[in-house]
Amino acid sequence: MSSNSFAYNEQSGGGEATELGQEATSTISPSGAFGLFSSDMKKNEDLKQMLESNKDSAKLDAMKRIVGMIAKGKNASELFPAVVKNVASKNIEIKKLVYVYLVRYAEEQQDLALLSISTFQRALKVNGRDPNQLIRASALRVLSSIRVPIIVPIMMLAIKEASADLSPYVRKNAAHAIQKLYSLDPEQKEMLIEIIEKLLKDKSTLVAGSVVMAFEEVCPDRIDLIHKNYRKLCNLLVDVEEWGQVVIIHMLTRYARTQFVSPWKEGDGLEDNEKDFYDSDEEQKEKADKRKRPYTMDPDHRLLIRNTKPLLQSRNAAVVMAVAQLYWHIAPKSEAGIISKSLVRLLRSNREVQYIVLQNIATMSIQRKGMFEPYLKSFYVRSTDPTMIKILKLEILTNLANEANISTLLREFQTYVKSQDKQFAAATIQTIGRCATSITEVSDTCLNGLVCLLSNRDEIVVAESVVVIKKLLQMQPIQHGEIIKHMAKLLDSITVPVARASILWLIGENCERVPKIAPDVLRKTAKSFTSEDDLVKLQILNLGAKLYLTNSKQTKLLTQYILNLGKYDQNYDIRDRTRFIRQLIVPNEKSGALSKYAKKIFLAQKPAPLLESPFKDRDHFQLGTLSHTLNTKATGYLELSNWPEVAPDPSVRNVEVIELAKEWTPAGKAKKENPDEKFYSESEEEEDSSESSSDSESASGSESGEDEEEDHSGDSGEDSGESGSESEAGKGRAAKHAKARGKGDSKDVDKEKENSKSSESSSGESSSIEESSSDSESESESESESESRTITKAKEKKTKQDRNPLTKDVSLLDLDDFNPVSSPVVLPTPALSPSLIADLEGLNLSATSSVISVSTPVFVPGKTHVLLHRMSGKGLAAHYFFPRQPCIFGDKMVSVQITLNNTTDQKIENIHVGGKKLPMGMQMHVFNPIESLEPAGSITVSVGIDFCDSTQTASFQLCTKDDCFSVNIQPPVGELLLPVAMSEKDFKKEQGMLSGMNETSTTIIAAPQNFASSVILQKVVNVANVGVVPSGQDNVHRFAAKTVHSGSLMLVTVELKEGSTAQLIINTEKTVIGSVLLRELKPVLSQG
Amino acid sequence: MPGVEVTTQRLCRATLRGPWLAAGIVALHPMSEKHWKSVVSQSVCDYFFEAQEKAADVENVPPVISTPHHYLISIYRDKLFFVSVIQTEVPPLFVIEFLHRVADTFQDYFGECSEAAIKDNVVIVYELLEEMLDNGFPLATESNILKELIKPPTILRSVVNSITGSSNVGDTLPTGQLSNIPWRRAGVKYTNNEAYFDVVEEIDAIIDKSGSTVFAEIQGVIDACIKLSGMPDLSLSFMNPRLLDDVSFHPCIRFKRWESERVLSFIPPDGNFRLISYRVSSQNLVAIPVYVKHSISFKENSSCGRFDITIGPKQNMGKTIEAITVTVHMPKVVLNMNLTPTQGSYTFDPVTKVLTWDVGKITPQKLPSLKGLVNLQSGAPKPEENPSLNIQFKIQQLAISGLKVNRLDMYGEKYKPFKGVKYVTKAGKFQVRT
Which of A56, A72, A626 is closest, CB to CB, to B71? Predict the structure, then answer.
């Protein structure tokens, strides 16, 4: 075929104009089909030429046309070789279009597709790695989308590499690629799970959603992989992109159902729909129940419920629904109520969203009416709603109906019955029937209403009413002769088979109550028997049989006539039934014992049908899923397990390391610097020790480091292991922590083993420390130096255990480097060669400003100060405290939180800040007026005050509607600071620059126990909002901060001396504040 | 997944379909299809057409259709169906919400989301879908990010591109994709820095025959148009934030600040976006700005009926009510209508039986009315129910709930932005039963 087209093409000379001409003629020619085909080929030929041209614009044009062909569903596969050549194009748009093409056709043209693979590989290779993360990511995307089994190993390798990429975007794409590879070759599962496990530890919010998706796809049963990441996922959730949120929430719902015990009281699992629950009732019961059987919710369970709550406010309906189903399935029943408001909000959305949400509400409203009762009116039907929405709304209204609201509902239903949408009107009639059975008070009213509908002009309405009335009457075997008579009359007019059949059945059932009418009906129907619908014929037979049994005198002949007609009917069901009835009721010699019981058989009391919601049994599907919508199990549906009887071990979720890593995130920029510093100090330490211990060690370590680049991913432990003995490696690690605070002066070499023991006992650290200390005993002297650092570390560990508020940051600083996963990169921390350090140190010195950055406060004292006493404030009380957060109103302001309490028994209205009386230069950002404060209510507002780095008082007036009270805030000097994160080295450098006039110092005398580092730390941060500077010596404590207004540094040093004295030094440009702070700190530190 | 040829995949394609016209399905061939993961045969769509034919009305095509091997989830928008083919369990709202986001993006890029627009821009559509979805999982759906990756088509740009040979496709990863504020692109620069907010409230109501309110609530949105340079950090406060009963936020809003202080604090996306949508609960009394007097009657056994409606202002807070339109879906038996409006103009479409009366402004001195005769099909029974009236109106400079923006502050940037807030009240689903 192709040679043919080539020939053709040569013939035509390739000219565009002639081609067109021939095209036109060929279609007219008798060989029309062939002509069309070849013209198609020719067109592609022209595309091929364009693709081979040198001009990007021509190529681009060709690619656009090809993509257009794909989009229209035309086959463009024969262009594959020509297109693939352009995969390495420099033009990004061409490249992308080629990718699009490749992904579409690679499966069909496997051999040719392989040609392109090397291009992607090149982009992904470690060495030649494309510096553009977008290119790397899209190369991975395309590579993994090429469904060619041969390249599975290449894909695997690429995914592995990408999962360790520095860019979270590339890692996200790696997570996507996992699923693709898995679908291509499920045999890779184990390897892929390993990667998933690794990526699950990733802290980037970008990756979280995608990797959970991969988890759900590849190994949803490996719930054990989630344990360690559970808390992290819960905490990240709010910041994950919306699509990821949906996936994570669904996964966590399943997780929670396997890991926690049920928060629901026993026995109300699924069956509480029988009773009418009002919210308050339920809550009370819940409470009562709690008293009986103490149930305490697992804090992790609570964490999930709490962290998903804000997502109910999401603009994305899928997220809201996901949270709603989470609350429905795992939250205590008393708390699930909050989801109804959000779900009702979704009803304003487009019809598809409405459809799904209404379905879910329908299922919910069956079980817990109370939840949606307040929103009853939101489910009222509008004439403009699509029918499917109308019917769902009706369903919900029925579920919500109770004695209290039924009268309003029935009035509403009356409007619906008249609707022009007959399908909807019919559904309304069904609904009325259901209400009549569920609420006995109104069953008569409903019945009368339905009877009225019997005279409706519309046949569908009448038919539906008949069917419903039949069901109702069957349920209440009371005298309803009148209604039956009325319906008998209808038989003349109504033609809908179901309705006719229903009437006949009803008359037959009640033939003894309407003795005069029944035979007459039989007479009429006998006349029309042959023209009736099969359904009606069967009921005529039934009616005949019943009458024959009860009133054979009048109807014997009629029945026999009908039976004869039935005998020759076309439908075998009817012939069967005729034969059966004849045998049963007409006594003859052959009929056995059965005919005696004929009456009992035909006129037995029949159980009433149950009118139920079609949504009744849907609740065994997880809400919000496709399976729930379809009410069948969809492919890949994951069952929601029942609550376990006993909760599995909750400690599996304890991950100290991860927890801390998570806590680190708010610290912001400070994080980035610390690893760097670690690198220097650690390697330097290595260098120190190797130099001093033995010459043989020094060589390899430093040399191997020398040619390594910064981004080398070798493990530091390994490196030092190469360079020296085993203990060296351990020491390297231990030293790392000690030295984390920066390059310290390593003077004190004489602290001994008791200390190292304490490190063993107090720190829950890895064994490497113990190892190092025990090893070091046997080692050379220099080892002890490193040990003394271990001590510092150990002490701080102790600190951490001693005092709670301090825990976070201190331990963070310690542990951060322990934990490779905590760094944003999955790569292990690289080691630097000593020679490089020297360079970097130089760099570091030059870039001072970057080192000083505001960090989070170490400690926030809960101390509040009285702003306005309730006596002087006529019942309005106000307290303030310093949250030590950077002020949101301006970066020169100190943020102050004011808590207002209303102690009166009346509302206090319009609380606002009146006139301000501020000293020169000071500024204040007031809170927004509070409209009203309920009695006994309290509200917290925040204000920002720029104190201009002075302890002057800010006076202003706190006004209510009626009064004004003058109040003032005087800041303690310690609150005029913001903590700063800096390294020890920088601290010293800065300190050196702030000597002489800028230095104030004093000597403190106190009992030795007051000089425990933990105590000092606690005292200092309590008084002043300073940051802790990691210290290499355990007798020197350093703190750094900057003033809020001017940003000048404030360096505090506490140096312990012999005996029970210590030197307190403060270096700052702002000498006034410095000396005030010194005055405040001194008594605090000296007193026991 | 036994029995399924193509294993696990989520959204294996979004198929865009031609419009449904009254005469039948036009443009049966798929306009555009895009496959992620293995290719799905077009025949799967036949199930969709089947469902479409079964449903009398496009509105009634079920959004979720189950076929032997696939599930079809579709949305209907702007006379187009967007269909996605699903193979495994997935939250249906996830797909629906995504398809709407796709439609929004097309709207954003091409100015309209129509068949013609998609056909004309098939390559961009393809490129967009490529960026928005990877292996069935949404990748980039923020319009700010997409616009950095693929520049929207403009005449100017296509001219420039053809001269310089540059392309429409960005070659670096959008900054937003990596930062924790993915909705904003970096390096935004404007000469005039402006921030406009539109507070739009819609009244949803059902008024019954006697004129009493069956159901009413206010649904509001604040749409923002922000053209500010750099990284502004805005905070918007209300005079009466407690009015807002239920709020949903754009992801940029800091939830904690709202919880504690009832202040909307956010770093905005660049351009137009919906900041919040809210509901003012039905517990509060909702002021209904208009009333309708109506008398519609069909005589028994006669081929005509009377139609008479009058509209008047009520609780309109002293503002004029503008752009009033009344739409009535008349019963099928109505053949024609002969009416005389005292104001505005009316049309009656005998095919769809829709009566539209474009009223315009209400002047209280002379209330607009529409009177006349209705011709019915002779012999047919008279309609059971009177049609309900759908009313549209607009009131400028008023938020009917009383919501007021207190102030807008900007931090993080030095310049002084130009700020503006506009209030509009409209009728939402406002229906009068007769």
Answer: A626
Residue type for position A200 = L
pLDDT tens track for A959-973: 888 888 888 888 888
Cα–Cα distance measured from residue A483 to residue A887, given in angstroms and rounded to the nearest whole number: 77
SS3 B74: strand
Return the bridge partners of B396, or none. Answer: B424
A46, A77 contact by CB (below 8 A): no
CB contact under 8 A, B384 and A458: yes
The DSSP code sequence of B94-106 is: HHHHHHHHHHHHH
Which residues in chain B touch residue A107, judged by CB atoms under 8 angstroms apart?
A: 38-39
pLDDT of residue B39: 55
Which residues in B314-384 belong to E strands, given as ranges?
Answer: 322-329, 334-341, 345-349, 354-360, 369-376
Provide φ and ψ at A125, rounded to 5°: -55, 150
State the average pLDDT over residues A574-589. Answer: 81
Query: Any bridge partners for residue B21, and if so which?
Result: B24
- Chain centroid to Cα A101, Å, comes to 34
| Contact by Cβ (8 Å): A1024, A977 | yes
Question: Which amino acid does the sequence have at B112?
Answer: E
For β-strands B345-349 and B334-341, DSSP reports them as: unpaired
Across the interface, which of B134, B167, B178 has its CB nearest the CB of A91?
Answer: B167
Three-state DSSP at B296 gives strand
Report yes or no: A1039 and A939 within 8 Å, Cβ to Cβ: no
Give yes or no for a contact between A355 and A389, defined as CB atoms under 8 angstroms apart. yes
Whether A756 and A809 have beta carbons less than 8 Å apart is answered as no
CB neighbourhood size of B283 (10 A): 9
Asked if A132 lies within 8 A of B383 by C-beta distance, the reply is no
Q: Which of B1, B38, B57 sits opposite A635 (nearest CB)?
A: B1
Among the ranges A439-448, A525-534, A790-799, which has the highest mean pLDDT value? A525-534
Tokens encoding B304 = 């005509």
Quick check: A813 pLDDT over 60? no
Instruction: Give the chain A residue whose CA is nearest to the CA of B82.
Output: A352
Angle at B188 between CA B183 and CA B192, to 5 degrees: 120
- Per residue in A736-753, pLDDT tens? 444 444 444 444 444 444
Residues of chain B below pLDDT 50: 1-32
Q: How far apart are CA A875 and CA A881, in angstroms?
A: 20
Contacts of B262 (CB under 8 A, 6+ apart): B237, B238, B241, B242
Give the Cα separation of B125 and B32 in Å (integer).
9
User: In the structure, what pLDDT confidence band is assigned to residue A324 with cuts at 50, 70 and 90?
Assistant: very high
- φ/ψ of A494, rounded to 5, equals -80, 140
Q: Residue A922 corresponds to which tokens in the numbers above? A: 């000071």
H or E stretch at A673: helix A670-693
